[in-house]
Structures are given as structure tokens and as C-alpha cells.
Amino acid sequence: RLTGADGTLSPESLFSWPTASTAMRRFPIAAVAALLARGANSYVRQVDWVESPFDLVTPDAAIESCGLAKETARALEGIRYDKVACPFGVLVACSAAYPTSTCGLAANVIATLLDANQDGVPDAPAVAAALALGSDTAAALVCGTSRAEERKAEDLPRIDYSFGSQSYDRWDPTNVILEESFHLVHQNGWAMIWPEVFGYASDFSSTVCAETARLQCVSPGWVHPENKCPDGDEERAPGDPAPSPVRGGCNEPSCDCNEFHWSAVENYMYQPDTDTWDWSSSWPRNRADVMAMLSDSYKAVLEDPTYGLPQKPIMGEYCVGCQPVASTYQPTYQPTSGSRNPTKQPVASTKTPTPQPAADLSPTKSPTKSTKSPTKQPIAPGPAPGPAPFPGCEDDDSWHKKRDSNKKCSWIGSNKNRCVVKGDDERWGFEACRETCGT
Q: Bridge partners of 9?
């Protein structure tokens, strides 16, 4: 990270190893130079690729529009947090110096986690209710321009827990806002409503914590970078995990299980720029290996619509009625037909079903006669049933940035942050340029 313990930028840290390599990977040289010139505490990018349907109002106005408690509003005003949104009643509060557009992005992310199909209704209403203002477990996402500024909002009255966005040290704030928002929904939402699945019992007995414990210090498996495996052994054999909790700064279930769950989910949902493998030595290097590592009982939780876990990438856009309700970027783990073999040729389809079974595209006048015994030779082998179709990892040459036909997938290739740019056909770059964006 570029900031010190007090939340301020340390210019020296930019040129230390390994911090320098991390900084240069996440920040363009011009941005780093600008930080040094400003002597700024930190940097929060003003995003320009999303719009938010949520009004950003003052804390005082939020008393009426969001049901914000007066004492909470006064506390926010006292620390110069002047922008408030409340997607599904959940408090998103941003400091006066925090970019307005990025504050809207944060509200969009919370809304998308609660309403994945963007139909304006929470996928799990009980979870939204647990997080909303007025609840005993009400949570807040607080967005400041430095660690110190976010710490000022840690103890807001009438809020059970405030989660800092930690977006002050990233060139692209989307993924870190998503991660902290996910922790918010997990800890104060899913874990409260379904403790047996998502909870933090000290014996690691919930489904999520049991999966964390099953993979603790195993290779392939899981170990949080703040934790230490017994004897430093992070490559234990599968089936022989280290006893949980291990020693370390994130060994409690509320931290260890939460961090593991996010790492698994971001791979499951094809979120771009996942980096768990970068700091967890035993974590698999690609999504296929992550999915192979996870147990069937845990993957069943990821797929169960009851819980409303994200099923596709979240890039910061939220728009009621703009998304197809039943769509998914994600293939099922098992083919719906029971076959593991893909079809050799696409199956011919008609606009309307035929009245009777037929051998070609035109209906027969009467049903064919059935035989009591099979024919000696198959008449014509039909296409084998296969799994639900999933788009290949190829770039679509027809795609280009909205209002600029010269900016195609090759343009995205020079800066992967452009994967979240929209095209003239309303598709995101990461949807059309799958090879370039790695999606």
C-alpha cells in the first residue's frame, strides 16, 4: 500500500521494494508523479464510466429521504461527510473531498450486491432489511480520501459497523469498493440471516468457515497473508489442513472466513483483475483450478439463488430494467442435460414449436408410428446433448467504444482499465473483448 499507518502517503514507500513494483503496477507514472507533487494524503480516482441512479444528498436531507437518524446525520456533518446515498436503505456516506462520481459507484455496488438482476427488488429481502438504517445490524460503507478520514467514521451512532471503502490507494477503485461492500453484506447480512451457512462461530462450523478450515494451509488451498501456518508449512497435503484458527492477525472466523469467501466468490463470478494468488501462496493461479479445489457443498451455496450471491462480474453499473432478468455470464457446473459432451453442431431451431415431432423443420401431418422394438441400425445420429452454451474467450471485432469506431479491443489491450468502457451496442468491453480482458 502507498499509505502509512496514519493514512498519509509516504513518498519513500514508492521507491522501496517490493512496494515500488506494486505501486507502479497499480498506478500510471503520471499519477504517481502527481501524488508526489501534491504531497497528497492519497488519491481517489473520479470514475467516468458509470452513472448512478441514486441521489447523493446531504446528511440533513437524508433524515427525511433515507430515514437517517438525526444523531447519525450530525455525526457525519461533524466529520465533513457531506454526501449520502441509501440504496435499499443501506447507508453509503462520502467525505466532502471524495469524488462525487465514485461515491455514486459505491452506491451502485451495494445495490448490485443486493439486487443482482437489477429489477429494483432485493434478491434476499431479509438481508437488505438486516443492513438497512433502523436495524440493530445496520451497516455503513464510508468513503474517504485517506485511511485517517475513513477512521473518523468508524463509530457512527445507530450504525452497528462501518466498513471503510479503502479506495484511496487504487488507480481503479471498483474492485476494492466491491470487496469491502461484499464484506459488509456478508458480515452484517448473510451471516445474520443464515448463520449456519455464513456465520462466524468460533469452531468454524458454518459452511463457509468449514470450507476455510478444510483448506487451511493446504496446497492448493488457503492461508491469509496475515496468518502463519504451523512450522511455516503452507503446502500441507489435501485432507490434512492445519487446525483452525491458526496464529495471526486475521485468524478469527469473522476475518479469516470472510476473506476466504470473497476470494472464492470473485473467482466464481469471473470478476476481472482478481489478485488472491498474488498474496496467498497456495491459492490456485486460475479460475478452473479454484473451482476444482472447492467442495461440492460449498459450490452449492455459491449457486443457490436463495442467498443472492453474485453470479457475474460487477463493474459498478446499476440500472433498474436495463439488465435482462434471467441472464448470466456463468455456465452451470453440470450440464443441464446430464451429458458432459458438447454438441458437434448447433441444433436447428424454429421460431415456433412444431405441432408434432418431426425429422425436419416442417411439421408432419400425423405422428409417426412407434415400434415395439428398436431398429437394427440407427437412422441418423442426432446431435449429442451438451451443456448450456457459454461465449468463447475471443474478441469481437465488431465492438468499439461508444461514439468512437476507432477504439476497438486492441485499444483496450493497452490499458486493461478500459475493459469497463461501454460500446455502441451497450456491451461492456469485458463482454465483447473476452480474450483481451481475460473474461
A: 3
Cell numbers at 162, concatenated: 462501518
Cell numbers that stand for 130 in this block: 438486516
Quickly list DSSP for 147-169: HHHHHTTTT-TT-SEEEE--TTE
Of 147, 52, 138, which is closest to residue 103 (Cα–Cα)? 52
Beta carbons of 51 and 107 less than 8 angstroms apart: no
Residues 336 and 376: beta-carbon distance below 8 Å: no
Sequence-distant (6+) residues with CB within 8 A of 127 are 114, 185, 189, 190, 193, 308
Q: For residue 110, how far is the Cα from the chain centroid?
A: 10
Say which residues have a Cβ less than 8 Å from residue 298's Cβ, sequence separation at least 6.
207, 208, 211, 264
Report whether the peptide linkage leading into residue 125 is cis, meaning its omega lies within 30 degrees of zero. no
Rounded percentage of the chain residues whose pLDDT exceeds 70: 72
**Nearest residue to 103 via CA among 68, 141, 135:** 141
Could you report the per-residue pLDDT of 287-330, keeping only the tens digit for each? 999 999 999 999 999 999 999 999 999 989 998 877 654 434 44
Query: What is the rounded distance in angstroms from the CA atom of residue 95 to the CA atom of residue 143?
Result: 6
Tell me how far CA of residue 78 lies from CA of 7, 245, 246, 412, in angstroms: 20, 40, 40, 43
Q: What is the DSSP string of 165-220?
A: --TTEESS-HHHHHHHHHHHHIIIIIHHH-HHHH---TT--SHHHHHHHHTBTBSS
Q: Read off the DSSP letter of residue 367.
A: P
**Residues in the chain, overall count:** 439
Place of cell 519513500: 12
Q: pLDDT band for position 369 (50/70/90)?
A: very low
Rounded distance between C-alpha atoms, residue 14 and residue 48, angstroms: 26
Q: Chain-centre distance of CA 61, in angstroms?
A: 31
- The answer to whether 114 and 308 are in contact (CB under 8 A) is yes
